[in-house]
Amino acid sequence: MIQNPLALLAFDIAVPYAVVLVVLSSCLADLNNAGVLRLTPIETLTPGEWSQTIAVNLTAPYFLTRAVPPGMKERGGSILNVSSRAAVMGFKDESVYCASKFGLEGLTRALAVELEDLTPSQILELAE
Hints:
The chain is an alpha/beta fold. The protein is 44% helix and 14% strand.
């Protein structure tokens, strides 16, 4: 009998990919909810700030989602990407945030088609 059928794993997304793969290999759901919101005009946004925001908001969901499907093909499961209105609208001083959420929106829609053989599965985007 399963004593704990639901385990919530929270970790720093800076964890190396190999470690994340081991953690997620038996995962039933992938909830990508991390986010960095910078209110910085494009003229003063540094390349480092751009890179960190894209890394957290778009690249991390890519790596985490990439690690999940092999086990989900056997067990089923869900991938949930938490997004924002910024995925479909532009906002002043949020150019990098909007770009990252537009990217997450595109990734979510593409995965819904690409991973449609995950049964039963759901690939959802939740707007903030």
